[in-house]
Amino acid sequence: MKRRFQLKLGFPVVLLVVFCVSMAAVSTSRAAPLPLNRTLLILYDSKVSADPTATMAHRFLELPFNHKGYQFHFHDVRTGLPQLEQGEYAAILTWFRQPLEDSKSYFTWAINASERGYRFLIIGDIGLSNTLESFYLANEFVGHLGIKLMPRYHAGPLSADYEIIDKELTGFERPLPTLLPSFEHVTARDAATEVHLSARFNIGSDWYTSALYTSHPGGVFIQSGFAFYYDEYLNLSKWIIDPFALVDLLMDDAEFPIPDTTTLTGRRIFFSHVDGDGWNNVSLIDRFRDQGTIAAEIMLKELVEPFPDLPVTVGLVTGDLDPEIGGAKVAGKIARELYAKDQVELASHTHTHPFYWSFFKKYDRKREQGKIDENKRLKDDKAPERLVSRVIPVMKPQTGREHYSEFIAGGAGEMPRAYMRHPFDLNREIPQSLKLVESLAPEGRKAKIVLWSGDTSPFESAVKATRDAGVENLNGGDTRLDLMNPSLLYVSPISRTVGNQRQIYTAASNENTYTENWTGYHYAFANLKATVKNTGAPRRVKPYNLYYHMFAVERESTLKSLKSHLDDARYGEYIPITASHYAKIADAFFDVSLTPLGKFKWLVENHHELSTFRFDDADNITIDWGESQSVIGQTRANGSLYILVDPAKPTAVIALKPTRPKETPPPAPYLDNARWEISSVEPLRSCGLSFSAEGFGKGDMLWKGLAPGDYTIHATPVRGSIWEHHVSVADEGVLKLSIDAEAQHGATVSITCETGADTTE
Fold it and tell me: Where is the signal peptide (predicted)?
């Protein structure tokens, strides 16, 4: 249900089987304002979903809630029910898939939480076990959501039809199913209950009406089978309910500056990263194969050197250059050349490339030795093939692969990691691997990120090892939104919680999912364009992420696709940044503090690397420049208002006002968008402004609100030559620049008025 932004004081106090604290509990008329609570408590049953990653809430709902500015805290009901502090969570959400074993304790707890003012969002099974006591307790609980469970059940699909249909809430990606699935008989309990979807059904000659979607001051209820539709023949799912409208319904259309991880300085973010798998593979492309050219060298010559204006993060499997475990010395030579390029960010893709991280959570070398023995047996079965390869030599780099083949996965069986000669050592996988990467780069350059390998599901201590090493971590998620994955259900949230740690997801899937793990469709990575388009509009839910493996360049069709994607990034309206920069922005989403200072005004703290805040359906609002602080710009896209705060300032104040047909000019120029990151914006004493800039390629940017007249632009890079330009600004006050200076290491820029510019009003 799409609503325009309303200039009212709103707080996120609703919930999707989430408990939401009442406004009275959050603040009083005399108390100092408290930060908005953006965290929902998500209850799950680990007997059904082993960890938060496997829950329906994480897989399907976390993305829409992230997009609206909320984050999830998961709690396993099998570890006991949490002791709730007043106002600890914005709401409580459940999406159980079967009855709870101890439903009595759960419903008793939930009744208490509801009575304390928490709102719930319940989707699917409410956790009811097959006992009369559980039924009575469940009814007492859901009574707080304004509904009543009846002792009837419609088995479907015949003898039922829809009665009430809220068209603003349904039909998001596909219509309601014509043949209704089974559902419980649920009725509205009081006048405060709003029924958004209902159905009539009969048992014999008696007809009944059941509520399928309801909302109430106590929460929101969605029956199983009506949130999304699964086509078992196509093995595809689509939303029925509008998940973004569902968030608004639960959170009562709470209005606040949404921390946005897709956008920086008014432009959609572009970042690219490469997992080093296949670093030493000889190309299958004719012009490279005959020379024995390996994948890493092709990437350097074809995708890095021609694109100095586009950063790329390259993760080396450091075992690939260690002949003692099966690597190749030539890998180090190419790594040095790659890491000497200014646009290449250093990264580790681990040392031995674990395939299945859970295998190493409670590591047992004896168990792994059994896998090694199996690997040796399978390779011995292929001995005649290896004999032929010795008789007919093949051009390839010198490696330790043949000597230590029994310890190398090489595609034989389900091996836990690529290199197994030495016992698994987390210290070797993370901090030592990072140091080895740094040893291959010019002095002073640091590795800033670990790119997870294999199933990209590291255990808690592995993620912690990256934090302890002072670096970011990335991978997992596999977002796609295209013809083969035609739903936002296939778009991942920002991150995955792993115990007390956080793993940042990529913003797009790599070429493996497009080529079905290279079993065919080698041209299919060109279809990434569809995901980039569909995650950018009608709402921007993800940045543009070009993510691939080193072995992707072995085939001509994929190499052409990669060049095409890089051209799109170069010539499109994006801001290119490194993968670690994106990961820092994503991390900051969870730290941002927003405190209401009154109507339409918020204090922003702890925003770290995240400097963009968004209001949706915002055609009728604009920045109140007189009341805002450390706000350097605004821009609009898809009906949303993106507000740019100064990254160099630890706090900011965002204030809004209604748009008017004739706006008063802003007191100083402001940024609409830029290809560089802009910070430390300061007005000059006469007129104009100065700022710091950092970025790749030319500094394309658009400023508004300048006084008409002539200006001189000076750009002074930390490295490189000073750039100077003279330009005239017309009555519209718009200044479009393309600064041809080196800013990757930083630059200071001044826009100084000459004769004719008048800033007086």
Answer: 1-24
Residues contacting 383, CB < 8 A, separation 6+: none
Phi, psi at residue 570, to the nearest 5°? -65, -45
Residue 479 CA neighbour count, 13 Å, CB half = 28
Instruction: Answer yes or no: do 228 and 313 share one domain.
Output: no
Is residue 13 located within the same domain as residue 119? no
Which residues, in sequence order, are bridge partners of residue 571? none
Are 375 and 406 a contacting pair, CB within 8 Å?
yes
| Model confidence pLDDT, tens digit, residues 87-131 | 999 999 999 999 999 999 999 999 999 999 999 999 999 999 989
- Using a 10 angstrom Cβ sphere, with 0-12 exposed, 13-18 middle and 19 or more buried, the burial of residue 755 is exposed
Strand partners, 332: none
193 with 231, same domain: the answer is: yes
Same domain for 186 and 206, yes or no, is yes
Q: Are 694 and 609 in contact (CB under 8 A)?
A: no
Question: How far is CA 53 from each of CA 117, 447, 499, 561, rounded to the nearest angstrom?
Answer: 29, 28, 11, 31
- Centre a 10 Å sphere on the Cβ of residue 335 and count the other Cβ atoms it contains: 26
Q: Region 399-409: what's the mean pLDDT?
A: 62
Total number of domains in the chain: 5
Query: Quick one: 733 exposed, middle or buried, by C-beta within 10 A (0-12, 13-18, 19+)?
Result: middle
Instruction: Check residue 701 and give its pLDDT.
Output: 98
Q: Provide the domain limits for residue 418.
A: 263-584
Q: Which residues of 634-669 are buried (b: 16+ CB within 10 A; e: fewer)?
A: bbebeebbbbbbbbebeebbbbbbeeeeeeeebebb
- Tracing tokens 């990335």 back to the chain, one arrives at 474
Contact 283, 554 (CB under 8 A): yes
Structure pTM? Answer: 0.93
409, 321: one domain: yes
Domain boundary among 603, 637, 664: 664
- DSSP letter (8 states) at residue 32: P
User: Is residue 639 classed as helix, strand or coil in its secondary structure?
Assistant: coil
Length of the chain counted residue by residue: 761
Distance separating alpha carbons of residues 103 and 105, to the nearest angstrom: 6
From its phi and psi, is residue 511 left (phi > 0), alpha (psi between -120 and 50) or beta?
Answer: alpha
Final residue in a domain of this structure, among 229, 254, 279:
254
Query: Is residue 171 pLDDT above 50, yes or no?
Result: yes
Q: Are residues 647 and 748 in the same domain?
A: no
Reading phi first (left if > 0) and then psi (alpha if -120 to 50, else beta), residue 558 is in: alpha
Do the beta carbons of residue 26 and residue 125 sit within 8 Å? Answer: no
CB atoms within 10 A of CB 500: 8
For 102, list phi and psi in degrees, rounded to 5. -115, 65
Q: Map residue 185 onto helix, strand or coil.
A: strand
CA-to-CA separations, 332 to 278, 323, 350, 528, in angstroms, rounded: 14, 11, 15, 31
Q: Does residue 582 sit in helix, strand or coil?
A: helix
**49 lies in the same domain as 180:** yes
- Residues 259-272: what's their mean pLDDT? 98
Same-domain status, 516 and 485 = yes
Q: How much is the mean pLDDT over the chain?
A: 91
Phi, psi of 52 (to 5 degrees): -55, -35
Q: Is the dihedral of CA 545, 172, 182, 211 positive or negative?
A: positive
Angle subtended by helix axes 365-380 and 383-391, to nearest 10: 60
